[in-house]
């Protein structure tokens, strides 16, 4: 929905933008012509000068993009981004919900298991005492009662755990959906990358291209470490690297 | 042992400054303030700079590990990790602190 609105307003904007470029470019031409004729070129305010230069640059970029047919590509790319964003937000929501469900199930099941274990251990201890002839007849009766009620309660308690395990399994059903969404998003990103890369390669000066490659340390998890020597693939490699640095 | 948790680096720093902590375990990739920024802030704070900071992260590039080490990390664990690894690193860091304390 929102991407549709955005693209609609984008097309409407184009003529207005063009008109703006034209106004700025014309104003800049007139000003420089006027300034040259009156010999006052140097008195033009710096801010105005920057704006008029920016205007001309933008106009030129706009024209170049259109000549090369890139405006369509950029338009498509700009449309794809909100789409991909929404898809990823969906994946994030789904996986968060699943994580919460799974954690809640584990939290609910753990105490059941712990109590089951503790009760069984206690009964076993008492039965050991019985076999060692340490129990009186009354104690034995009480033990038999407790054992009976424990045993009759076991199915209900294991059923509860089993239901939690089923919950955990069911919480994983989102993988099927999000997998498809992620695949689609990956396609969008790949297209986008190809288009933007081509645009950059054709229009970007070399030194800027190199500068853009060095940015930040947030890489995220390594998906495919095969054949790369700039990454570590195990804790022992981390330790070795730290050791080599004197840690 | 008392454990407190924070949603991001900024909140962690706030908690560290307003309470008494003996150990910091931090992720790298967090909103508002990343783990490496938190580490630098801790090392730059006279009241906190002695704190051991263990980084646990999915960042597995060598440049990240080197950056963390140079910023004063006490340890670095890459995800996915096991409880045994965590235990080993914690023990090692605490041992080193004791040795440093005994030597000083």
Task: Note down, in words, how this protein is organized.
- The complex is a heterodimer of chains A (247) and B (104).
- Chain A is mostly helical and 247 residues long.
- Chain A folds into 2 domains: 1-68; 73-205, Helix Hairpins (Orthogonal Bundle), CATH 1.10.287.500.
- Chain A has 7 helices and no strands.
- Mean pLDDT of chain A is 78; it is low at 1-12.
- Chain B has 104 residues and is mainly α.
- Chain B has a single domain (9-103), classed as 3-Layer(aba) Sandwich (Rossmann fold), CATH 3.40.50.
- In chain B, 48% of the residues lie in helices and 12% in strands.
- In chain B, α1 (9-18) packs parallel to α2 (35-44).
- Chain B starts with 8 loop residues before the first helix and ends with a helix.
- The A-B interface holds A 217-222, 225, 230-235, 238, 241-242, 245, 247 and B 28-29, 34, 36, 58-67, 69, 75-79, 81, 85.
Amino- and carboxy-terminal Cα gap of chain B: 26 Å
The largest sheet of chain B has its strands arranged as: 1-2-3
Mean pLDDT of chain B: 90
The residue fraction in helices of chain B comes out at 40-55%
Q: What's the mean pLDDT score of chain A?
A: 78
Helical stretch tally of chain B = 4
Class computed from helices, strands and strand pairing of chain B: mainly alpha
Could you name the CATH homologous superfamily of the largest domain in chain A? Helix hairpin bin
The CATH architecture assignment of chain B turns out to be 3-Layer(aba) Sandwich
Low-confidence stretches of chain A: 1-12
Distance between the termini of chain A: 54 Å
